[in-house]
Amino acid sequence: MNKKIRIAIIGYGNIGRCAAEAVHMAEDMELVGLVDPIASLNSSPEAAGIPLMATIDDLPEAQVALLCTPSRVMPDYARKLLAQGINTVDCYDIHHDLADLRLELAEIAQTHKTVAIVSAGWDPGTDSIIRCLFQFMAPHGLTYTNFGPGMSMGHSVAVKSIKGVENALSMTIPLGAGVHRRMVYVQLTPEAEFAYVERVIKKDPYFREDDTYVKQVADVNQLIDMGHGVHMIRKGVSGSTHNQIMEFKMSINNPALTAQIMVASARASMKQQPGAYTLIQIPVIDFLHGDLDDIIRQYV
Amino acid sequence: MNKKIRIAIIGYGNIGRCAAEAVHMAEDMELVGLVDPIASLNSSPEAAGIPLMATIDDLPEAQVALLCTPSRVMPDYARKLLAQGINTVDCYDIHHDLADLRLELAEIAQTHKTVAIVSAGWDPGTDSIIRCLFQFMAPHGLTYTNFGPGMSMGHSVAVKSIKGVENALSMTIPLGAGVHRRMVYVQLTPEAEFAYVERVIKKDPYFREDDTYVKQVADVNQLIDMGHGVHMIRKGVSGSTHNQIMEFKMSINNPALTAQIMVASARASMKQQPGAYTLIQIPVIDFLHGDLDDIIRQYV
Predict the structure, then answer these.
(1) How many Å lie between the alpha carbon of B144 and the closest alpha carbon of chain A?
(2) Does A137 contact B131 at a Cβ distance shorter than 8 Å?
(3) Chain A: nearest CA to B246, how far in angstroms?
(4) Which residues of chain B does A261 touch, with a Cβ-Cβ cutoff of 8 Å?
(5) Over the stretch B222-256, which tens digit does the pLDDT of each residue have?
(6) Does the domain formed by B5-124+254-299 have CATH 3.40.50.720?
(7) Residues 235 to 254 of B: which have CB under 8 A from any A CB?
(8) Domain spanning B146-226: CATH 3.30.360.10
(9) N or C: which end of chain B has fewer CB within 10 A?
(10) Single pTM value for the model
(11) Which residues in chain A are classed under CATH 3.30.360.10?
């Protein structure tokens, strides 16, 4: 009953650091390892007491691994860790690929009796839970998800991986009714050609659906603010009653919220049958620590 | 796969009528019976084609019963129907009793291999899901649930059951930070004494926690508007990052939304193991009709 859940963190960037803080704050968890090829360069107070491992093969004690890597390198870590008997939680943010990724990880997880929680951030993630709520509360109608204004971590990382880009910031600007503009600020290496970088960005699946502006700046770090937000609104019909209006809004530090949701999902992973799950497939009570009846008395 | 879920409705007041409409709109359900001692007096177009039963013993075909009765008479119906092999969905709204009621119904449901969904309205209900979300997204901080302004059906029905009250309307007025005033409008029978009615209302568990004003009026029906709303707000801490702000707001027709949530819960009841559940114990995907992977692709 008093045994703590043993957590490992893979990747020690913005989300990984916040995840370490959130695990420290969770009374039912302990951090047993950290894997990051460049973590020694980024050493921070939170990392002080955490055993730093060279590879994921050195995590025999961990029960759940939080995959705080860029989305595009994440699946490989998930495949290996699930097969090693370790549950995984990721914040994979590529909407059109996550359903297939879940199916693939579900098979590995079932074979190795582990649990993968896929896309455990805020969108995809907790916003997805709210979209489902809105849908069954008013089955006919429209839901709009308006992001920002704020820095998209997934989009910024995608740009940073382009050859010639030294640093990048992708801002999401809401234009209303679920339409967005992307404002991308890039800091280039001396030999890079701006026109080439701009073309690659605009063709990337992360950007090609949206109106995207790319601007070259001297120092991206001067522009960084990790705040973000969302405004979801549905106007719909319950039964035959129209004009049912529901809204969800938040203003948050993006990596801190993402990491906190991942930590709660690590807890939820311990309560699921082997398989792979998106957040909408898990009862919300499973993300909370404590006695079931106490939680019902407090929150229902 | 194409078999429709067979639904019965118990009680044909405001929520019962809306429930009939919501079942008619749901492609995966059919209404097989209606039980109401006074339904013949209230006949409406929606009730036209529905077999009207005298008692719940006449519902052999139903798989799920929607209990659209006042909260205080609901548990007796649930006990009997669960023992008859019929799942139940209720919108029991007495917050401090629902956890114990769930435990009692869970035992009956497990014995008879049925499912009870308890407190499947919007608060308790979908608001409870959002309170849990807010809690695990920012584990330290305060959540305020501000209701109204709007008509509370549960409170109005509780007042109507007092001797001497011919008709009643209880309005919930938000005062901020989760504090409310109750404005109760009563229409009395000729022999009733206002001071007595006022005293009974103020001592009732539905009212005794709140600042309650009781006013006598000639005709309550002139005041009725079924609109209601809620504004939930949490300011809290994710990991060690403060000032994470999240809000949920809605403006809705109260019986229509309550009935729609009950209908979605009837669907969810078909996917649970025997037992009794509040909404926070059920994955949100279970409330939606359709293929699991399609839903993930569409809403996550």
Answers:
(1) 12
(2) no
(3) 4
(4) 136-137
(5) 999 999 999 999 999 999 999 999 999 999 999 99
(6) yes
(7) 238-241, 243-253
(8) yes
(9) N
(10) 0.94
(11) 146-226
Interface of A with B in 41-70 (CB under 8 A): none
Taking CB atoms and an 8 Å limit, are A280 and B287 in contact across chains? no
Q: Do A129 and B132 touch (CB under 8 A)?
A: no
pLDDT of residue A112: 98
Residues 82-141 of chain B whose Cβ lies under 8 A from any Cβ of chain A: 95, 98-99, 102-103, 119, 122, 124, 126, 128-133, 135-140
Chain segment A98-156, per-residue pLDDT in tens = 999 999 999 999 999 999 999 999 999 999 999 999 999 999 999 999 999 999 988 99
- In this prediction, residue B48 has a pLDDT band, given cuts at 50, 70 and 90, of low
pLDDT in tens, A194-239: 999 999 999 999 999 999 999 999 999 999 999 999 999 999 999 9
User: In which residue ranges of chain A is CATH 3.40.50.720 found?
Assistant: 5-124+254-299
